[in-house]
Design brief:
This protein has one domain. The protein has 3 helices and no strands. It is mostly helical and about 100 residues long.
Length: about 100
């Protein structure tokens, strides 16, 4: 009777183990599809710039974002303005050195 009982317990253990493994696989697969798949598609679109259709899509996206920004009162915040201005001055100085 003891041996039958241990076989039954072992059978229950393996059934639970298989169920847990399948559940873990399903959870990992679902989380991958929900979180990473969309981001990977976006990255693949950016990396496939040799396709004319993708180039046109990106150009259109940039144009639409530029049009949206023209409707705003301020396009760039003050910190970024200072950063761009300092960068501009540095580049301007480097170009002046070339002329000498």
């Amino acid at each position: 009777m003891n041996q039958n009982n241990s076989k039954a317990d072992l059978k229950k253990f393996f059934i639970k183990l298989v169920a847990i493994v399948f559940a873990a696989i399903i959870v990992i697969n679902a989380s991958y599809n929900l979180i990473f798949a969309e981001k990977l598609e976006t990255i693949n679109k950016l990396l496939s710039l040799n396709n004319n259709e993708n180039i046109k899509l990106i150009k259109d996206k940039i144009r639409s974002e530029m049009k949206k920004s023209l409707l705003k009162d301020k396009i760039i915040n003050d910190d970024d303005k200072m950063l761009f201005y300092k960068f501009y001055l540095k580049i301007k100085n480097e170009f002046q050195e070339i002329e000498k």
